[in-house]
């Protein structure tokens, strides 16, 4: 898939090269992001840092319009308060009526204090239209297609001093990512641009239900059975979106 994306970008570049002046540059940006989608209010997902670096090409058709593309590496982190999520689900059932007793306290404390940090690395090809309504000021809008290279999850329980990092199971991760991108920027000089961009994904980075089922499945099974619960009837079975949402501040240096 990555090979096809690169070939498509090259074909587009060749098609417009004859009609436009071309600039080549290096782009770097810092980012902060979280997730959005269906029922994300059920989660306790925070913001995480990230970065975006790569090589860009700008095809300048006239002073008011340009087209940008390139190859970029996008690193994303998202923090999930798994403990807060479990409290929403399990707390209503932590009564003797459902067979709960103090002997389960340690197990529940383990779950209630767990935090999971997701780390993602994508190879991306942006296709962005740039409009210059005024000299040096520009507005960007376009799409970004990415291929997932790395997806990992770090599970941490501070109260027990536990930490473990594992790859997201193949069946739970999405290999491709498609996002909309928009932003504004300013050309400080002919060779230096600074910009602010927002990115909103159309596809889930992971299948949240499948990933949740893989997180400490033995603990979850013993917990639900001890409380007389069927996990398929709980909020755990709700469809939950896990789409990318990030805000980036960056700069591009055009050296050709």
UniProtKB/TrEMBL annotation:
Keywords: Signal. Residues 1-20 form the signal peptide. InterPro entries: Beta-barrel_OMP_2. Residues 18-206 form the Outer membrane protein beta-barrel domain. It comes from the Bacteria. This is Outer membrane protein beta-barrel domain-containing protein. The lineage of its organism: Bacteria, Pseudomonadati, Fibrobacterota, Fibrobacteria, Fibrobacterales.
